[in-house]
Amino acid sequence: MGNQLAGIAPSQILSVESYFSDIHDFEYDKSLGSTRFFKVARAKHREGLVVVKVFAIQDPTLPLTSYKQELEELKIRLHSAQNCLPFQKAVEKASEKAAMLFRQYVRDNLYDRISTRPFLNNIEKRWIAFQILTAVEQAHKSGVRHGDIKTENVMVTSWNWVLLTDFASFKPTYLPEDNPADFNYFFDTSRRRTCYIAPERFVDGGLFATELEYMRDPSTPLVDLNSNQRTRGELKRAMDIFSAGCVIAELFTEGVPLFDLSQLLAYRNGQFFPEQVLNKIEDRSIRELVTQMIHREPDKRLEAEDYLKQQRGNAFPEIFYTFLQPYMAQFAKETFLSADERVLVIRKDLGNIIHNLCGHDLPEKAEGEPKESGLVILVSVITSCLQTLKYCDSKLAALELILHLAPKLSVEILLDRITPYLLHFSNDSVPRVRAEALRTLTKVLALVKEVPRNDVNIYPEYILPGIAHLAQDDATIVRLAYAENIALLAETALRFLELVQLKNLNMENDPNSEEIDEVTHPNGNYDTELQALHEMVQQKVVTLLSDPENIVKQTLMENGITRLCVFFGRQKANDVLLSHMITFLNDKNDWHLRGAFFDSIVGVAAYVGWQSSSILKPLLQQGLSDAEEFVIVKALNALTCMCQLALLQKPHVYEFASDIAPFLCHPNLWIRYGAVGFITVVAHQISIADVYCKLMPYLDPYITQPIIQIERKLVLLSVLKEPVSRSIFDYALRSKDITSLFRHLHMRQKKRSGSLPDCPPPEDPAIAQLLKKLLSQGMTEEEEDKLLALKDFMMKSHKAKANIVDQSHLHDSSQKGVIDLAALGITGRQVDLVKTRQEPDDKRARKHVKQDSNVNEEWKSMFGSLEPPNIPQGLPKGSDQEAIQAGKPPRSESSAGICAPLSTSPQVSEVTNVQNRKPTIQVLSSTILPSTYQIRITTCKTELQQLLQQKREQCNAERIAKQMMENAEWESKPPPPGWRPKGLLVAHLHEHKSAVNRIQVSDEHSLFATCSNDGTVKIWNSQKMEGKTTTTRSILTYSRIGGRVKTLTFCQGSHYLAIASDNGAVQLLGIEASKLPKSPKIHPLQSRFWDLAYPERSYVVAGSTSSPSVSYYRKIIEGTEVVQEIQNKQKAGPSDDAPRRGPESLPVGHHDIITDVATFQTTQGFIVTASRDGIVKVWK
């Protein structure tokens, strides 16, 4: 038979690449190996990578059409099976005499995955075994038998989703037991001689019948080697169960197969049992499951569904059935097309996930698996997406997920599964991602409490070199994150080293340990490793302490500088840390950095010891005379803490006490409190004799009476004299010739004490003027004494401020507080808030898309591209997972971004497009699709669109309000028939001090009103315009509304005037007209204050505010808070705003823009005009 098979070899052997010559949709990529049965290659398709299997036709009479129809039917049947991946396409090429099968490419099969790092743990193996049985159950329920289940045909994605592929219905069911040629030709594609075929499929070769016998009895198996036909017979479910059992056994024995061909034939005859291999399966439930599945008698094997029910809660945890399988299945559907979407969905469901996976105990038979181990399966989904994430928001969400899950994961998972991806993110193109990855990495490593044997050198060889470049990153935010976390990183690295050393010592002391030489280092190497670690961290710390940005240095000091001291030891803490920190006080422009020095110096000094007192003394004195009072407060607090810790020598303490005592009269309350705190601590530290002999003399000038309990803060505070006035202090400190001022004040003090008979006035007129100014601000003799007590401090502070001003003139070329966006290279984006009508053919939209290439790359990373979604049709199932496996983006990433608009119509069309995909979309669950299908758009872009929408609505509301105000038409009396304006100016009124915005005439034309930007409303008597009076001025002025009065109107048929201001207030004024000599009065009847941004904050004030006797009552009227005024009626006083008298001669015409025009009618017609310069003119 072997000769016969060799004799039918083709006369011409073609390479697999040659078969792609006339297939345009597929491009050959590389060969995946070839056997005598199939040539296998990987090809590129527009929807992803595919596997192509080429069968060279040797016999043209082969019924390939029937096989092709069988594969098409099988594909339709398995359409709803989420764990099955059948051939998607079959092509017969007559020219090359070949048949080609196509299916989606998956990078790893189970055989490869078993031996690939990170190795599968127990819960992952159970999960894969569960899915294998689930896949077999799905296929059997669909009426399909596989026929060739083996580890090479069980594909595993990067997130541990199992796909059963290469269904072999065209391969023979039965094989001759006495000839291995058929087995080698069809089934031993790996050439490992492993055998997964059920024993009942091997039959005696003499029992095979001829084709003629088959025609007479179709139930008889048929094989005719001469015509290259293969055995026909129906595959049984029990045959697939046996093969699946062999695969599961190999999974749990780390790749050790149960049978090779000879062992299986011996097992078939009862001469062999794989007990030795089965005993390697530690879990008893799995071992019993495999034993049942590989039973020699087919009738003793159960269905896949029965095994799943039998092992529920035993081999397979309950959570597989209730949560994991249905939840993970949604990621295998076509709805989720990108890694970004998967991460965002998991973040949204994180609370429910943790509740399900950590809220229930796994079965006791999980044999040592931690309670939280179910999360490992979810972690594999997250990590499979990390390298293909596109958007910054998705990457940050993934890091957030890792940080939430890390405390619930084992050490091996953190080091083997999480840490490599965090280091990958530390090289991301987006600075925010790099910074957050470093923070997450630090927190994750801090959770590791024990070090596995294979990770003993993870810090010096992997982690620290992997993040070393971040200390010199171009982005300040990244260096900031490094400075923020380097102390904790160093502390964790030292703990790792100590754990390793402790483990080495324990193993050396253990007489049963046989692995000392393999996993441990000599004791002498500990010091060498520690020194190497110190050098690595020291290099980065020095880099950060020398960073050009002060905020980086400040962050380093504020985040664990004391822990770095402990890490380095006393000598290096003094030589490395303290020596660099001292230089920070030289920066006179950044008081935050100087303040951070004094906040951090206590911890460093405490670790270095009292020997540093002499070094720190001048630095602390410099802090007490700093130009910034916040720094002085911090220096006082540092001195207080150091005194408490006995880090100051006694002579230094008394010297500081003499410097700090004058601060008891400093105008800054915090400085006075800091001084009191230091003095009370000193009183605690020294003896009573020293308190009264050395400390009390410093305090006497600043306390009102002697005290005993100086160590009590409240007692000392209660007897302090009043501090110097802030205005006097600041004025004296800002004076240019402060030295001469203090010289003169000192002479005045000597005169008061009798030391000098007389104090002549200062010769310098500037000092005389300065002294006069200080005396006018209330400077008394006691204030002079306090200023003289603060003389040394003020002189040093004045000098420090002068230096700061000089340096600022040298270094600051730009105006303070002004940011030059052009100089920073920021790309501006402009959006029209007023929408215009879009052209029917959407030319503008297409033009906008074409401009996408000019968008800044960082904007693209945050907001995505502007291209519309491009969703291909007829997509093979799950191709996104396989594209990720192959290191290429999934098909949803073929366009620059999937950013659908927020309107409903594109979404509906896209959903319709999804539903039209045939035949795969028909099986999507109606309960999953609406909840999980999302518009593919980044969160940043959504927020940007929401902001634009809000701004458009705000702009539209303002435009409508402005339009309503401008277009408002009010009823007015028509002029008399035949009246024509003569152009004569009868009044020139210029009482308004700013632009006049509106003129309104009352219905009976007896009054007209004007409002202006000067915040006033003026009422004018129309009758005075007829020339009956000698002066023409307003009869009423109202100015209590506040803001700029933009509009006003008379209520119809009344003397009620409604006015509105740009501060949101609307008031209703009642004008009481009266006959002379009485003057009319204005009563503000009602004010309604509207807050357009927060309508619920609006309120109404009712009543008059001009009355001297007013009481208020609050109540709610129709949901509005009303404040009602109850008052005693009194006569209104004269107007506060006295009008200005007009000029004697009236100029004709306006000299600025006319803002409003109105007419009124008395005995004759008049025209009133107003201009922007506040002038009102009356014409007739």
TrEMBL record:
Subcellular localization(s) per the UniProt record: Cytoplasmic vesicle, Autophagosome; Late endosome; Membrane
Record EC number: 2.7.11.1
UniProt cross-references to PANTHER family, sorted A to Z: PHOSPHOINOSITIDE 3-KINASE REGULATORY SUBUNIT 4
Protein name in UniProt: Phosphoinositide 3-kinase regulatory subunit 4
Membrane topology note: Lipid-anchor
Positions annotated as HEAT repeat: 463-493
InterPro entries, per the entry: 2AA_helical (IPR055231), ARM-like (IPR011989), ARM-type_fold (IPR016024), HEAT_type_2 (IPR021133), Kinase-like_dom_sf (IPR011009), Prot_kinase_dom (IPR000719), Ser/Thr_kinase_AS (IPR008271), Vps15-like (IPR045162)
GO biological process terms on file: late endosome to vacuole transport; macroautophagy
Primary location group: cytoplasm
Cofactor(s) essential for the protein: Mn(2+)
All residue ranges annotated as the Protein kinase domain in the record: 26-324
Reaction equation(s) it catalyzes: L-seryl-[protein] + ATP = O-phospho-L-seryl-[protein] + ADP + H(+); L-threonyl-[protein] + ATP = O-phospho-L-threonyl-[protein] + ADP + H(+)
Assembly and binders: Component of the PI3K (PI3KC3/PI3K-III/class III phosphatidylinositol 3-kinase) complex the core of which is composed of the catalytic subunit PIK3C3, the regulatory subunit PIK3R4 and BECN1 associating with additional regulatory/auxiliary subunits to form alternative complex forms. Alternative complex forms containing a fourth regulatory subunit in a mutually exclusive manner are PI3K complex I (PI3KC3-C1) containing ATG14, and PI3K complex II (PI3KC3-C2) containing UVRAG.
GO molecular function: ATP binding; protein serine/threonine kinase activity
SMART domains reported for this sequence: S_TKc (SM00220), WD40 (SM00320)
Gene3D superfamilies for this protein: Leucine-rich Repeat Variant, Transferase(Phosphotransferase) domain 1, YVTN repeat-like/Quinoprotein amine dehydrogenase
Job description of the protein: Regulatory subunit of the PI3K complex that mediates formation of phosphatidylinositol 3-phosphate; different complex forms are believed to play a role in multiple membrane trafficking pathways: PI3KC3-C1 is involved in initiation of autophagosomes and PI3KC3-C2 in maturation of autophagosomes and endocytosis. Involved in regulation of degradative endocytic trafficking and cytokinesis, probably in the context of PI3KC3-C2.
Keywords per UniProt: ATP-binding, Cytoplasmic vesicle, Endosome, Kinase, Lipoprotein, Membrane, Myristate, Nucleotide-binding, Phosphoprotein, Repeat, Serine/threonine-protein kinase, Transferase, WD repeat
Stretch list, region Disordered: 863-897, 1128-1148
Biased composition (Basic and acidic residues): 1137-1148
One Pfam family linked to the record: VPS15-like_hel
Per-repeat ranges for WD: 989-1030, 1147-1180
A GO CC annotation given for this chain: cilium
